[in-house]
């Protein structure tokens, strides 16, 4: 079995999680059983993955594993009426939760899963003074997953986890940290598989044990690939068994992206390369980054494998959408909305485009911190671009939107090979970008399938966009070349062959 180690799968994911989801589908397509491993307790994960077309048998969550809830075949839709409330109770139904009262005294609240009509998510119980003393937590699939217990100060002191049949399987104890917030002090697996109670200091220690259990249950040699270095590197270093261990590097390995050979290494990657002999190899999304790492660590085994794969048109969609059929003068950005992505520079650059291309529009897809999003909305208002610029938020179905755009732009200072560039090219969208580490120089042939512009020269980017928006022939040529590049270099078969060569070596 192949396990891809991640912290979580959320409703809004980064390229780290999207890379893992792409890979698990690729491996299972070629009949190599694979699962995404997640560490975080998440009662909604089996709802979330449906949005990304990931099957229940393509993930294994640590808490699901110990709660014996990895292979549930049915879901039970639970509403307030199903909770066997006392007959004397009165229920006042609200939009997000129902209040349960006995006479005039509130005894509990029943919260609903967001986006559902009354589907139970939690039930919190009050003491006589209205303080929450206990909360039952319900899994999306309809079973009581855990109970939280609170002390007199209202702080969490114990969380008890259950199997779908109601057996207590795990207990997590908390003490206050230096700020008074709950800090895990002990975790106990209750009578684990006839071995009695097993004690762990924290979730990290339990996670190491979990990975070992995954490895032990395989009849063949297990392969682990750590996708998120902060989650997977240390547990794999602690795992001293025969399993194969790889580290995927989704980020710039150097703190200073402009000094990849000698600059200080990222803190999460540092222990992996200090003990590189413990790992079977390291994987990067671009050859450029792989070569930089080989220069730093000549004895480490480093391989480049693309994070995005393409499939033939007949299997994916009926035909590419010609540039002339797309919304004219429609510009696209996909990625985090954050300062390091130079979003303000993007907006000011677009204002230069808009000065000459009056019907130009610019859509930005991605999530960001609310405060920064508000700042960028202020920049849009300052530039009088409210009718032309739209922040579209994160969209898990981004693939459904690419075909309406003519160009994708990226002015980031650095990145770890943005997947959106490859996805855009797959949809015949040329990319205009600074040549930062890593990605643009690997994906773009300047003037052939996109454009590379000297860093910091936003005026040149604006000029190039204006040029292409007013030259249908040149834009169509770049569009076709972008599509051809994607379907020559990142086909499922070619990417799979790279994985085969790595894993069979």
TrEMBL record:
InterPro entries: Accessory_SS_Asp1, Glyco_trans_1. Transmembrane segments: none annotated. Keywords: Glycosyltransferase, Transferase. The keyword Glycosyltransferase applies. Pfam families: Asp1 (PF16993), Glycos_transf_1 (PF00534). Residues 322-483 form the Glycosyl transferase family domain. The keyword Iron does not apply. PANTHER family: GLYCOSYLTRANSFERASE (PTHR12526), TEICHURONIC ACID BIOSYNTHESIS GLYCOSYLTRANSFERASE TUAH-RELATED (PTHR12526:SF629). This is Accessory Sec system glycosyltransferase Asp1. It comes from Levilactobacillus lanxiensis.
